[in-house]
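By convention, the token line describes the chain's fold. To illustrate:
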Amino acid sequence: MRLANVIQLGIKELRGLWRDPTMIVLIVYAFTAAVYAQAKVQPETLNKAPIAIVDEDRSPLSERIVGAFYPPYFTPPALITADEMDRRMDAGTDTFALDIPPNFQRDVLAGRTPAIQLNVDATRMTQAFSGAGYVQTIVSGEVAAFLARSQHTAPPAVDLALRVRFNADLTHTWFGAIMAVINSITMLALVLTGAALIREREHGTIEHLLVMPVTAAEIMASKIWSMGLVVLLAATGALLLVVQGLLHVPLQGSLALFLAASLLDIVCAATMGIALATVAASMPQFGLLVMLVLLPLQVLSGGMTPRESMPEIVQNLMLIAPNTHFVILAQAILFRGAGFDLVWPQFVALLAISAVLFAFALRRFRAFLR
């Protein structure tokens, strides 16, 4: 492999990418607007859910419950009558409607177990699933605090001291922003390299390469380093400008160490993109193959749900996927400030996977050129 050929072919790829406005827009969007949107819109997190309360008791306890609902989990509660509750739910004005019955405080102080009715609009699935638990926890906590204050009950014998590490305020924006950058690195590396090969086939320039004194390995290496450079620069800009600057997410570990890991993941994703491009006959077919390959890798890598919650066979099977190791070390570096002494097993795994994928993609590419 001659380094001069690899550099010149890589420069040619960069020029081709610059003349493709669609890909430029995709890169900019994936590392700016997509990162911001995924950080701010977390479907599993309750955020400003509209709630209405029917207070038929008008007691200090009911007023205490009404005052316990406030942003950012809920909007300020709307005090309505029982006749308005169904109409507002039918109109979609409220996601939750809480009905506090008459004589609620009197029954609580008398030791009875009065019931509070909670109506939930289940068409808003993401808020309905988690919001009902929030409402139950808030009401139970306020009732317990009211009883403890009014009856002077003794404090519990054991108190739980909760300490949250790495994200003390449990800010969901931190996780969403970092995972968006991680997913965009893998996606863009795969798409750009594969699209570059498809573009050459559609424009007829692949035949020009065949008559030049270059090898298949040189062509592959040029596509990997050129597209990898673009993805690395875009990821760095996203981390510094969007994640740190706009979203104010602190990066605990070494940015250089994370970029080194990103480089290995880019090699893996780029070789997969070249292998898929040798199978696809056109850009639409390549897009379908990318969906079939990339989505399972991202969903099962541990970035959306913990790997420990998956079946054991899935955990073991995903160890051969580069996304799994990249997500593990990226979270360790950026969230927990881990150094190379802690994440070196993932580096070794990524290096081995990239070597195997490169050899496989090179074999496919040589067959494709023949």
Q: What stands out?
A: The longest strand covers residues 51-55. Strands lie at 51-55, 78-79, 96-100, 117-120. The chain has two domains: 3-41+168-369, 51-151.
